[in-house]
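ok trying again, last paste got cut off:
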Amino acid sequence: MDTKKLVERVTQTLCSVNQEGRKYETAWLSFEDDLTGRERYVLNIKADYTVNSYYEETRSLTELLWRELDSESLRMIARIAVYDSHNDIHSWSEDIVLFKSPAVC
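nice, full thing came through this time. structure:
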């Protein structure tokens, strides 16, 4: 699978959740060098609220992705990183922005 299809599928999935009332402010993919030679990414998500439990938020996102994405897409996501509204985030120029506030989905 190419990265473009992964971006489309993950963006569509996260935007559908945003439309149901959950507020993710920003989402981006950053390259993960896991020494396997495979193309893999970290799915970074910044919530528009204070996250009470990073574990629960990550678990919820993982379950959502398992329901909505195919196995090929899932293999390209190495892990999920969640940030809440109080975290300063830093992305690099090579990161792939899926969506960003204020133009969310």
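cool. The longest helix spans residues 3-19. The chain has one domain: 3-92.
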